[in-house]
Amino acid sequence: MLFHESSHALAGSVMVAIAREFRERDKPIPRDLWHALLFYTTGEMVRRDVSYGSLAAADPQENGSPPYETYAKRFGLYSGSWVRFRGMLDLYWLPYLDGRISFDTAIARLAAAM
Q1: Is 24 exposed, middle or buried (CB count within 10 Å of its CB: 0-12, 13-18, 19+)?
Q2: Residue 64 belongs to what domain range?
Q3: Residue 19: partners with Cβ closer than 8 Å, 6 or more residues away
Q4: What burial letters (b/e) apply to 65-92, b meaning 16+ CB within 10 Å?
Q5: pLDDT in tens, 68-81
Q6: Count of structural domains, the chain
Q7: Buried-most residue among 22, 46, 100, 102 (CB within 10 A)?
Q8: Which residues contact 84 (CB under 8 A, 6 or more apart)?
């Protein structure tokens, strides 16, 4: 239950920060931004865990299977109405996930760019 509660706290923090930054800029929050960010973050974290060997995954060299592909990429979530989110997340959210910029900076830059 602790993981579930902490994930809600984190999700709430992200949603509050997004709302704050867009409100400060007097911009509407783009529909599905939250979902695109959630799929992007989850996919990137799982991809890293698989790459670093933290998660058990079939070795592509052993069984000829392709390397890990995120759910969003595999099912084309960043096409259609989500296409604009992918580039923005690469530019402004990935540096946060990499530990190169702060959470607040990432959200502010994302809001400013939209």
Answers
A1: exposed
A2: 2-113
A3: 29
A4: eeebebebeeeebbeeebeebbebbeeb
A5: 888 888 888 988 88
A6: 1
A7: 22
A8: 30
